[in-house]
């Protein structure tokens, strides 16, 4: 059947030529996007570097992280050749503690965020897809969860659960962090379900699970990924705060948060103890936030549509 | 008419919303013969799309099919069929072609993948065989270099190409009936003609029936043998396409035809049907078209007209069938006074010049 082929080829070429001027108008937004992609790469490189440091802390650290090297001679020493980041009030090497602290801070943050993103996505998917009464009940329940202040809840749970194993810390932070994600996912599901390809998939005989898995989930994942990368930064800070309250990582285990708050009391005299973990937290949060924002701009089709409208 | 492939009897689809019960489809009866092309026309809001969705039971809550609706297809009643059996019919025996080629394809999968998915839902085919079938189908719908195109994503294709892909998805399992819901509305006029040609060609080749839903009477004239006109959730006229264009009986059909611009005609303004379709939560009493009808009289306000037989194969839901002499005395429709005359009584006098500008007939696109 060659005839439609012959007919359509010139017509499509015509259509393409008609579209071309519109593409030219797109150019500025493309440039913007390329620059954002650049930012994305350096933030990603930084995140990657942090992960490498955390994984190889054992090999990289010059001293054991919890060893009190010389409680008299090395107490609260400023940075020097032997101790590049100085020592703390217990004569422990700060660089080593920082490296091992990266393990705790990053693994808690990433695993907790992974957990909350998964739970939140599942909850939002079910709520949005089922709709009706199921949706109403699930959303009211969510409102109830959201009404509880997160830090207060964490303090209550963790204070009762003492000493807190790391896995429990991850679990508790993860399970209190998915509410907003599920909201986001539900809203996105509702909008995706109105798209014709979802109706079309049902019309072509696809089953409910198949529609959710193939047609809805991949199309709601972008905001989840973005909010997750932004969430990592938040959880690092949250964990630091919990350590400060004495209910995060337990002494002598180092996390950036616990080191920071160890040193924050005496910042005027021994500034290095709080400064370096503080910088590490800022840098990590920044990297994740920049990566998240850049990812959103690259992935979000609404953003692109907005560019075009302009 | 050939043997009926699909017979719909007293189809009623109601939506239960906060504003009341919307009777979007309200007692529709018609049939589609094997190999036949039937057109379903009407304005936006007349219920034609909901009718299409109802046939495959794709209406989602708060909408639902009312008890007593019958959708007979290949010896089964789709109105009462279980979910699993329904899925085995959707896409395999009855397939739908949707209006928006921009959104009818999933943006995250290649087009070949999406066609192959339909094959894999309905047939026990390997990934490779399903892909082969998809490529073959792309060739059949006239996409050049189908093996390469199959690997492309929807956004890489033009609107016309995408609509061809949507048609390929619908036809890949060789269904007995294709329901095409405004398949050309979103396309350029030149592409529209190609798509209509393609559908006809594929019908010749595969022998399927087509239920073509459109508000474009031009498309109807070229393609279908029989036309159903919908208004207010009901069929208001049914006739062979030639009869309909030559001697439409229902004033609504007359209005639709008059709203079509004709070649060689020199008019300042397009003619329209005054007013718009009333909301489906409150269809007017009596004849649902009475407030926009230029012939309406007392009987139309109180008595809901049945489908009158005009001649063999031609029915019309209008009291004019019994009182044809009233056609000689057209007047301003009631709606004109409501739109234009502030505080004016129903039936009061008005020039009707102004309101005509306000009322837009969205169905009468050129």
Detailed description of the structure:
The complex is a heterodimer of chains A (310) and B (366). Chain A is built from 12 helices and no strands. Chain A has one domain: MetI-like (MetI-like fold, Orthogonal Bundle), CATH 1.10.3720.10. In chain A, 77% of the residues lie in helices and 0% in strands. Chain B folds into 2 domains: 1-93 and 175-366, P-loop containing nucleotide triphosphate hydrolases (Rossmann fold, 3-Layer(aba) Sandwich), CATH 3.40.50; 102-172, no CATH class. In chain B, strand 8, helix 7 and strand 9 (209-214) form a beta-alpha-beta unit. In chain B, the strands form 2 sheets. Chain B has an 8-stranded mixed beta sheet, sandwiched between helices. Chain B is built from 13 helices and 13 strands. With 366 residues, chain B is of the alpha/beta class. The model of chain B is unreliable at 339-366 (pLDDT under 50). At the A-B interface, helix 1, helix 8 and helix 9 of A face helix 2, helix 3, helix 6 and helix 7 of B.
Query: pLDDT average of chain A, as an integer?
Result: 78
Helix count of chain B, per DSSP?
13
Strand order of the largest sheet of chain B: 7-8-9-3-10-11-13-12
**Proportion in helices of chain A:** over 70%
Which oligomeric state applies? Answer: heterodimer
Q: Please work out how many helical segments of chain A DSSP would assign.
A: 12
CATH evolutionary superfamily of chain A: MetI-like
**Which pair has the most extensive contact?**
A-B, 33 and 49 residues
Give the amount of beta strand of chain A, in percent.
under 5%
The profile of the biggest β sheet of chain A is: none
CATH-defined topology of chain A: MetI-like fold
User: Any idea what the CATH architecture of chain A is?
Assistant: Orthogonal Bundle
Q: What is the CATH third-level topology name of the largest domain in chain B?
A: Rossmann fold
Helix content of chain B: 25-40%
The main pleated sheet of chain B reads as: 8 strands, mixed
Beta-strand content of chain B? 15-25%
Distance between the termini of chain A: 43 Å
Question: What's the number of domains of chain B?
Answer: 2
């Amino acid at each position: 059947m060659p005839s439609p082929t012959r007919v359509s080829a010139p017509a499509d070429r015509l259509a393409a030529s008609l579209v071309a001027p519109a593409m030219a108008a797109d150019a500025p937004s493309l440039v913007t996007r390329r620059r954002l992609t650049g930012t994305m790469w350096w933030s990603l490189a930084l995140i990657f570097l942090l992960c490498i440091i955390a994984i190889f802390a054992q090999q990289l650290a010059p001293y054991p992280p919890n060893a009190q090297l010389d409680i008299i001679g090395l107490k609260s020493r400023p940075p020097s050749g032997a101790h590049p980041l100085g020592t703390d009030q217990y004569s422990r090497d700060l660089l080593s503690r920082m490296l091992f602290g990266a393990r705790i801070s990053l693994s808690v943050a990433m695993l907790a965020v992974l957990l909350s993103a998964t739970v939140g996505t599942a909850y939002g998917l079910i709520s949005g897809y089922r709709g009706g009464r199921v949706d109403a009940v699930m959303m009211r329940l969510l409102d109830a969860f959201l009404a509880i202040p997160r830090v207060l809840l964490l303090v209550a749970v963790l204070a009762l659960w003492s000493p807190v194993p790391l896995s429990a810390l991850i679990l508790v932070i993860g399970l209190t962090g998915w509410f907003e994600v599920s909201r986001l996912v539900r809203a996105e599901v509702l909008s995706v379900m109105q798209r014709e390809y979802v109706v079309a998939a049902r019309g072509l005989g696809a089953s409910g699970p198949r529609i959710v898995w193939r047609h809805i989930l991949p199309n709601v994942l972008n905001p989840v990924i973005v909010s997750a990368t932004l969430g990592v930064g938040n959880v690092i800070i949250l964990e630091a705060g919990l350590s400060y309250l004495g209910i995060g990582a337990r002494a002598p285990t180092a996390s950036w948060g616990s080191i920071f708050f160890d040193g924050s009391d005496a910042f005027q005299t021994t500034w290095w103890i709080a400064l370096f973990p503080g910088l590490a937290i800022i840098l990590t949060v920044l990297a994740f936030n920049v990566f998240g924002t850049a990812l959103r701009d690259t992935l979000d089709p609404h953003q692109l549509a907005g560019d075009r409208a302009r | 008419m050939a043997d009926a492939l699909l017979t719909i009897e007293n189809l009623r689809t109601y939506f239960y919303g906060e504003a009341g019960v919307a009777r979007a489809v309200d007692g529709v009866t018609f049939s589609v013969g094997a190999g036949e092309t039937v057109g379903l026309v009407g304005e936006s809001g007349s219920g034609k799309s909901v009718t299409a969705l109802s046939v495959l039971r794709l209406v989602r809550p708060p909408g639902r099919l009312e008890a007593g609706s019958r959708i007979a297809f290949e010896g089964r009643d789709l109105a009462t069929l279980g979910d699993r059996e329904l899925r085995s019919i959707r896409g395999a025996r009855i397939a739908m072609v949707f209006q928006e080629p921009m959104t009818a394809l999933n943006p995250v999968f290649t087009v070949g993948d999406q066609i192959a998915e339909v094959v894999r839902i309905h047939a026990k085919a390997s990934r490779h065989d399903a892909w082969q079938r998809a490529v073959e189908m792309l060739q059949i719908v006239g996409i050049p270099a189908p093996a390469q195109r199959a690997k492309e994503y929807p956004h890489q294709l033009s609107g016309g190409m995408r609509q061809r892909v949507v048609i390929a998805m619908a036809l890949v399992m060789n269904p007995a009936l294709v329901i095409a819901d405004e398949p050309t509305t979103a396309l350029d006029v030149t592409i529209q003609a190609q798509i209509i040609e393609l559908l006809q060609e594929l019908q010749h080749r595969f022998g399927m029936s087509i239920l073509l839903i459109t508000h474009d009477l031009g498309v109807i004239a070229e393609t279908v043998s029989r036309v159903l006109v919908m208004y207010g959730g009901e069929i208001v006229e049914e006739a062979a396409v030639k009869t309909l264009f030559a001697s439409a009986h229902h004033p609504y059909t007359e209005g639709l035809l008059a709203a079509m611009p004709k070649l060689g005609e020199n008019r300042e303004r397009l003619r329209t049907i005054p007013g718009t379709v009333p909301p489906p939560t409150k269809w007017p009493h009596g004849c649902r078209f009475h407030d926009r009808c230029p012939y309406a009289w007392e009987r139309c306000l109180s008595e809901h007209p049945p489908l009158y037989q005009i001649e063999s194969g031609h029915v019309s839901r209008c009291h004019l069938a019994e009182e044809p002499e009233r056609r000689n005395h057209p007047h301003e429709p009631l709606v004109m006074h409501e739109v234009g005359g502030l505080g004016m009584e129903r039936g009061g006098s008005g020039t009707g010049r102004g309101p005509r500008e306000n009322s837009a007939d969205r169905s009468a696109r050129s």
